[in-house]
Amino acid sequence: MDDKTFYYYFKENMNATPLIVCPETLFGQFSTAVGTISAMANYIKTYGNSATVAEMLFTISGSSVAAGGGVVGAATVTSEAGLALVELGAAYYVGACIGSLFVAAVKCGLDSYTRAADSHSASVKDISYFAKRHGIAISHEVQKTLHRYPNLRQCH
């Protein structure tokens, strides 16, 4: 499938979470998204969940990423989940990105895994296996986040 279709599904899934920040420059194509998410996952392995999303994205992209009227660090999170971006930390964002990568890949036919698409949800084990197959090392913090917030791995 074309790259725009992948990004459409990736963004659609991210929009279903409280975090809607997913710049096309970092997530527009499957291979670019895998590289970005891999770099973010490695950042969390190095710095833990104490880093902000803005610091993490600035480090891996080399520039501030615009989101609405401000930069990623200033992006608002809907109060629907009752969570603040600072409170969530980078592991939540990486978990959302990994879940969205999985969902977009399945919906676009880039990955043959269909059980999650049929059941509308993927297990943390499924997501971890998928990430490992694509060279993304998931830290303990991200795994805990995926367990704690099942909405990050739902096929919306």
Structure, explained:
Helix content is 59%, strand content 3%. With 156 residues, the chain is mainly alpha-helical. The chain has one domain. A two-stranded antiparallel sheet has the order 1-2. Strand 1 (66-67) and strand 2 form a beta hairpin. Helix 5 (85-108) crosses helix 8. The radius of gyration is 14 Å and the shape is globular.
List the helices and strands and how they pair.
Blueprint lengths: L2 H13 L8 H4 L2 H18 L5 H9 L4 E2 L2 E2 L13 H24 L6 H5 L4 H10 L6 H9 L8
Helix pairs in contact: 1-5, 3-4, 3-5, 5-8
Quick rundown:
This protein has 156 residues and is mainly alpha-helical. It has helices at residues 3-15, 24-27, 30-47, 53-61, 85-108, 115-119, 124-133, 140-148, and strands at 66-67, 70-71.
Query: Which strand order does the major sheet show?
Result: 1-2
Sheet/helix structural class: mainly alpha
Number of strands: 2
- Poorly predicted runs are 64-87
Shape: globular
Oligomer: single chain
Helix content: 55-70%
**What does the radius of gyration come to?**
14 Å
Beta fraction of the residues?
under 5%
How many helices? The count is: 8
Q: What does the main sheet amount to?
A: 2 strands, antiparallel
Q: Could you say how many structural domains there are in total?
A: 1
Mean pLDDT: 74
User: H/E element string?
Assistant: HHHHEEHHHH
